[in-house]
Each structure stands twice: as structure tokens, then as C-alpha cells.
Design goal:
four-stranded mixed β-sheet
């Protein structure tokens, strides 16, 4: 199991990407699987998804709950 650093990007234009944004009172980790790698913010290194198998997350952008950076999953 490894920490996978996500690619920081500028905020996508509306309608160009599927962007997952954390809720103000929601969990700090977007997805938790059962086994695999931890995807961390490319800017602040906070975990965004834990125990995820490579290839499960495709064409998604995550907004980091901690620093607000937009992160794209790199090719796996």
C-alpha cells in the first residue's frame, strides 16, 4: 500500500469535469475502500481517498477539504 500524490490543477470550468467537493460537516476523506492505496492532496498531502485499488477512480477531480486545491487522479 502506497500514498499516491494527486495532480494539482486549476479549478475546472463548469461542465468540463466531474468535481467532488467535500461538505462543510461531512467526512474529511471522500472514499474509503477495503484495501489499496491512499490518494493524497498534491498540495498539502492530506488524505482524500483511502484503501482504494488503482484504476477504481477515473476522470474525477477532488477538491481538498483542508487547503481547497483541486486534484486530479493521474493515470494508473
Amino acid at each position: 500500500m502506497a500514498n499516491i500524490q494527486l495532480e494539482v490543477i486549476t479549478e475546472p470550468e463548469k461542465g468540463t469535469a466531474s468535481v467532488l467537493v467535500p461538505g462543510a460537516d461531512g467526512p474529511q476523506v471522500m472514499f474509503t475502500g477495503t484495501a489499496g492505496d491512499t490518494y493524497v492532496c498534491g498540495s498539502c498531502s492530506k488524505p482524500i481517498c483511502e484503501k482504494i485499488q488503482r484504476g477504481q477512480l477515473v476522470n474525477l477531480v477532488f477538491k481538498c477539504f483542508a487547503c481547497g486545491s483541486y486534484n486530479r487522479v493521474r493515470g494508473t
